[in-house]
Design brief:
The protein has about 350 residues and is α+β, with helices and mostly antiparallel strands. Helices cover about 25% and strands about 20% of the residues. The strands form 3 sheets. It has a 6-stranded mixed beta barrel. It is globular.
Length: about 350
């Protein structure tokens, strides 16, 4: 859950925010009888340049989360193609989408900016015992915690003694970013690894620190990427950095699980395929929806020109609100994090409607 100006936009992945089952898409969906009148994926901007095979493989790996009967049948069709065609070719993958789906463009909600941001699964160093550098405890879920319970703000929690033995110790800025992402991976001094999974939160609203850092002159307006913010916090570790991170009162507690070497699961319950999964607003989309995104040039230093392609709606987050708002999962590690930290792009989105 962080990255782009995720710190500005306030992104949080599903590991932090697991809402009730999606209410259903606010994106217009035509009745089955009218789907035949909708344009096909061939009409999408950039469709001819897509890696259809990569999109097909990601879809086939994750489409089982779909619940709509027509979507389930298209998923079964994809599984049949994979079983009977060895190998599946790019032309077969393209034909699968073009014959099986129509497209409907999502329209922005009034007052909400169409925006693509990105997030990743961070990998950080940790220690079993504290030292001068690794002096910030990773805390487990408080006893008796229940979802929605309001606990102390970040500054109060960090100022007090740990309520229970810490699970691990981290650099302060690394733990802050781990909490923004909602989950991540830790490597200890003996080389062992663990996954830090979301276990609880303090019930406080997330507040991004990028904008106030720019307003205070701590960073330039176009230089508030995730990497820039983390570097500033590391260079000012101690009371100065804590005063800035305290602007975000939200605090996340973790559980440590074995690292299976894969990617974390999103709110839909399946591992997130790198660069092919998005977090969406569950009031506007349904988990398992097949989506086409087209995002133009970003305005942050180091931003890529744009992002276009097939993705699956598999996750959600507290800052992801509205029909044309998405958070693209980039993968694990530093390279994914560096790219995610510079994603803040204007966005268009289309729902690929399964044909009966």
């Amino acid at each position: 859950m962080a990255g782009a100006l995720l710190l500005l936009a306030g992104c949080a992945t599903s590991t932090v925010e697991t809402p009730a089952p999606p209410a259903g898409p606010a994106v217009p969906v035509a009745p089955p009888a009218q789907v035949s009148n909708l344009p096909g994926p061939q009409s999408l901007p950039g469709w001819a340049d897509e890696d259809h095979l990569a999109g097909f493989q990601a879809y086939a790996e994750t489409c089982r989360v779909a619940r709509d009967a027509v979507a389930v049948r298209q998923c079964e069709r994809a599984q049949h193609i994979r079983r009977t065609s060895r190998p599946v070719t790019p032309s077969m993958a393209r034909a699968f989408f073009e014959t099986g789906f129509a497209v409907v463009e999502a329209q922005p909600a009034e007052g909400r900016t169409p925006l693509l941001t990105a997030y990743f699964a961070p990998e950080y160093e940790a220690r079993r015992s504290p030292d001068r550098e690794f002096d910030t405890p990773v805390l487990g879920r408080p006893a008796g915690w229940s979802r929605g319970q309001v606990l102390d703000e970040r500054a109060v929690i960090e100022a007090g003694p740990p309520p229970s033995p810490p699970l691990a110790w981290m650099r302060a800025e690394d733990l802050f970013f781990l909490q923004i992402q909602g989950s991540g991976y830790l490597t200890f001094e003996d080389g062992s690894k663990a996954r830090a999974a979301y276990a609880a939160d303090n019930g406080r609203t997330f507040v991004g620190i990028a904008r106030p850092m720019a307003e205070r002159g701590l960073l330039p307006t176009n230089g508030t990427s995730g990497d820039a913010i983390r570097a500033w916090l590391a260079a000012h570790r101690g009371p100065e950095a804590r005063a800035v991170t305290a602007l975000n009162p939200r605090y996340i507690y973790f559980a440590l699980d074995p690292d299976d070497g894969g990617d974390p699961a999103g709110a839909a319950g399946v591992p997130l395929p790198a660069r092919r999964a998005i977090a969406v607003d569950p009031a506007s989309w349904t988990y398992g929806d097949l989506v086409w995104i087209s995002a133009g040039s970003g305005n942050l230093v180091g931003a890529r020109h744009g992002y276009t392609g097939l993705v699956m709606a598999l996750d959600t987050g507290s800052a992801i609100r509205g029909p044309v708002r998405a958070d693209l999962y980039m993968g694990r590690g530093n390279a994914a994090g560096a790219e995610a930290g510079a994603v803040q792009h204007p966005l268009r989105m289309w729902r690929l409607v399964p044909r009966p």
